[in-house]
């Protein structure tokens, strides 16, 4: 089982993704800013809320190296969320970098992730924001984010068995 779960902010996509793996110990990968490097209180609060509703048997790992997390996991993996991963990568590369440089930086990491998901036999569920139906500011950073996340979503979807759109807690298998 390899599933990409997409939807808007507060759509219920994370809760749905968690329900797919709730009955087994799972590696929950939080790919945003790691609390060790960047003690962002909003990010720490998000992780704490998600951790509180997940089964105690789940392990949480904060990392941007999603390919390694998927490849090295001993069981099912839930990555939540590709949008925060992309933002962290763009922060790392520098939002002011030329678009080609940003795309190359993200592209290498994306290639590795897609290969890792394709190669694993373990269940993998990836959560992402659906930028095609979301509000993204019409300025350079917003366009770069939207375009790159659209590419991330499309590439990851090619190696998944199912893509699920979640709207208001309701699911639609695409």
What this model shows, in words?
The model has no long low-confidence stretch (mean pLDDT 88). A 7-stranded mixed sheet has the order 3-2-4-5-1-6-7, with helices on both faces. The chain has a single domain, classed as P-loop containing nucleotide triphosphate hydrolases (Rossmann fold). The chain is of the alpha/beta class and 174 residues long. A hairpin with a 2-residue loop joins strand 6 (162-167) and strand 7. The two termini are 15 Å apart. It has helices at 13-21, 41-53, 66-72, 82-93, 99-119, 140-157, and strands at residues 2-7, 27-30, 59-62, 77-80, 124-129, 162-167, 170-173. It has 6 helices and 7 strands. The protein is globular and about 45 Å long.
Based on the model shown, name its key terms.
seven-stranded mixed beta sheet; 174 residues; 6 helices; alpha/beta; Rossmann fold; 20% strand; globular
Q: H/E series, N to C? A: EHEHEHEHHEHEE
Shape: globular
Radius of gyration computed on alpha carbons: 15 Å
N-to-C terminal Cα separation, in Å? Answer: 15 Å
Give the biggest beta sheet: 7 strands, mixed
CATH architecture: 3-Layer(aba) Sandwich
Main sheet: which strands, in order across? 3-2-4-5-1-6-7
The number of E-state strands comes to 7
CATH superfamily: P-loop containing nucleotide triphosphate hydrolases
Structural class estimated from helices and strands: alpha/beta
Poorly predicted parts: none
Query: Number of folding domains?
Result: 1
| The CATH top-level class label | Alpha Beta
Percent helix, as a range, is: 40-55%
Mean pLDDT: 88
CATH topology: Rossmann fold
């Amino acid at each position: 089982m390899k599933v990409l779960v997409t939807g808007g902010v507060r759509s219920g996509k994370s809760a749905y993704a968690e329900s797919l793996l709730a009955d087994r110990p799972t590696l929950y990968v939080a790919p945003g800013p790691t609390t060790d490097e960047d003690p962002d209180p909003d990010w720490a609060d998000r992780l704490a809320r998600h951790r509180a509703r997940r089964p105690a048997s789940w392990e949480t790992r904060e990392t941007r190296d999603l390919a390694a997390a998927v490849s090295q996991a001993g069981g099912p993996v839930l990555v939540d969320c590709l949008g925060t991963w992309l933002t962290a990568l763009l922060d790392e590369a520098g939002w002011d970098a030329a678009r080609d440089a940003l795309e190359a930086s993200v592209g290498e990491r994306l290639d590795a992730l897609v290969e890792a998901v394709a190669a694993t036999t373990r269940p993998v569920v990836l959560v992402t924001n659906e930028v095609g139906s979301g509000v993204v500011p019409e300025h350079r950073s917003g366009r770069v984010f939207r375009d790159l996340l659209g590419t991330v979503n499309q590439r990851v979807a090619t190696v998944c068995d199912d893509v699920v759109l979640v709207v208001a807690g309701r699911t639609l298998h695409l």
